[in-house]
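Worked Example 4.2. Consider the chain below.
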Amino acid sequence: MERKYDFAAIESRWQKKWEADALYATKEGTGRPKYYLLEMFPYPSGNLHMGHVRNYSIGDVLARYKTMNGFNVLHPMGWDAFGLPAENAAIKRNTHPDLWTKNNIENMRKQLKSMGISYDWQREVASCLPGYYRWTQWLFLQLYKNGLAYKKKAAVNWCPDCATVLANEQVVEGCCERCESAVEKKYLEQWFFKITDYAQRLLDDLEKLPGWPSKVKTMQQNWIGRSEGVQIGFTSENGRPMPVFTTRHDTVFGVTYLVLAPEHPLVSALTAGTGQEEAVKAFARKVQGLSLIDRTSAELEKEGMPIGALAVNPMTGEKVPIWTANYVLMEYGTGAVMGVPAHDQRDFEFAAKYGLPVKQVIADPACPKETLSAAFEDDGVMINSPPFDGLKNRLEAMPKMADFMEEKSIGRRVVNYRLRDWLISRQRYWGAPIPILYCPKCGVVPVPEEHLPVPLPTDIEFRPGGESPLKTSLTFAKAVCPLCGGPAERETDTMDTFVCSSWYFLRYCDPCNCTQAFSKEKADWWMPVDQYIGGVEHAILHLMYARFFCKALRDLGLLEADEPFANLLTQGMVLKDGGKMSKSKGNVVSPEEIIEKYGADTARLFILFAAPPERDLEWNDAGVEGCYRFLNRVFRLTQNIMDRIGDTRPELNPGALREADKAVRRAVHGAVKKAGEDISLRFNFNTAISSIMEMVNALYLYLEGETDGAVLAEALEKLALLLAPFAPHLAEEIWSLSGRQSTVHGQSWPAYDPAALLTESVEIVVQVNGRIKERLVVANGLTSEQLRDDILAHSRLAHWSGGAPIAKIIAIPNKLVNIVVR
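Applying the procedure from the previous section yields the following structure tokens:
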């Protein structure tokens, strides 16, 4: 009697068996080469979405494939569990973030296990647990003690709805990336990590990452934003220094005005007593309402006003008016920009708008006296710039002018970066507390390491207004100074959740260590991560921060690896009806519902088959049905083969095989070859699955006639092994049905027999002067000479050549013949 493909029973049975046997627990000291496979750990929102299913299915195929190829695979999972979304969700539901988060983790862990992912759950971590954030705090202290963590008052991005500070990278088109509210500017005392100390290394070491997508590396290069130039020592009329960074110091003789950022501290000092104070303050307030993105946008209308003071150009001694404008930012360069209308189109338009003078100092050699109708931004020769007149501006004048400024101590060569230090302070509750005390006598005091973790209190209130909820805790804020024993106050900001995710991959190497964040020996064995998988949206956030952490910890002697992730795969999104799945659009597909209706193997197979991993995937219900029908066909095929071969396992005798036997073996071994190459060389899981489908079709056709038991037994074994990374439950079931006691997931990836791939004949192309005339079936393995002789003796030679004289015949064995005629 034919058994039904009862996926629910099959998947439940094998998942329980795998867990009971701790099948996927990583074993150290096996002598096998290591392979660290990691997908970005999720925020525990409560339910998996199809993006998760895709990410984790891709990772699981690679983990299983590498295991079958003899690697000792580390494939862990955990939870990026701190952060504002959990806090807001808990407040909305009148519950505690801790309870909300842990319930979500429990549900999502259950969902992940229902997918049959080969995670080592013994290494599970959650960033919200004291056993984890104790070491996040410890790492903060190491950075602080080594000058890489500091506090300063700074203009910050403030989200009024979330009531917290945002890093520059968390502001998208002027809005909070979480709630999409307009972001404001505030001045607050904040903690920073000194990522700028690593700007050049972060830039240079992108060359060490050939396994990263070029798109991601370009995004990081642009965010770091290295530029070489000169810092020129402009001063105010009364001698106040106003250094200006420029990459175009060849235009310094053309400066007709100077612009300060509205936030520049000299603006208020220089407007004092000019009668411009109130007007300038009002302008500054207006500009502060704009986002960084708006202020640097090419579409922004450039606005400014004079502050009533003059600046002195150190190269000419000329006095020029000082303005403040909306397009100059304190965050970039020095917050002061020289205005050169003749050679910068933005400055040209600004000068035209406000009636400022234009002075040309670089000319087109072909039209040296041309009247400017727009800024001249091309290369040319210097004019009105003694003693540099007549020099080519870039090749000759720029180095000489830089030398001159350095000799006269009025400027110096500098390298500038767009990258700014990482602002980690958050005025929220649900994060790792910053382990710092403030003592009236001793000042800023780090919490002693033996007192870690600084735990989150439970007696807190969530109030509007933006102050940290930790300030409402009577048990938290008050502390004792460890130096003098006097009263002290705790820091009430928590750390940006990206701090927690910047080192989690190291904790997986040694997750149960109670005395260290991780053992250096274990981290040095497993690191770097061999294959990292996640979304491209993390290119300048998590991926940059993790690289910084890795380099800083290496400098502190805690780690040997200089880069955290050797290879990176950024998978595409899962779309439906042409758009991203979202509840508001009503186009969400629930993984739980798909698994309940079709099974985990079907969900996995479809998500892997529908598109290459790096491309977006369009959800298709018919495609899911098709994958389900295919797995049903595989299950029926297994039963049909078992009915044919029974319990016998005859020895395969290749010399005694019929043509039909050889043909099906060719299909089986061809699928093994193609699937292995598609997985290992190209990550083309869709074409690997397609080759397995073709193999199944060939086996069904073979079963219609006389069969060889040894051929069928071999085919069934290889089918189970090929399916193991993609549909692990069904593969295990096939393996068991074929009489094996061991697990299919402990077997080696199948080998293919090159001899089985050979055919007795092949199809070749016949060309005349490079144009295809016909396709011929010839004996396989003919040499060039034999192939040429066959063509010369062929009855259709005159037809192909049209009777023209033959100059030569070019023959490529098993591929083509090109007849060259005069």
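The CA atoms of residues 650 and 710 lie 5 Å apart. The two ends are 70 Å apart (CA to CA). Compare this with Example 4.1 before moving on.
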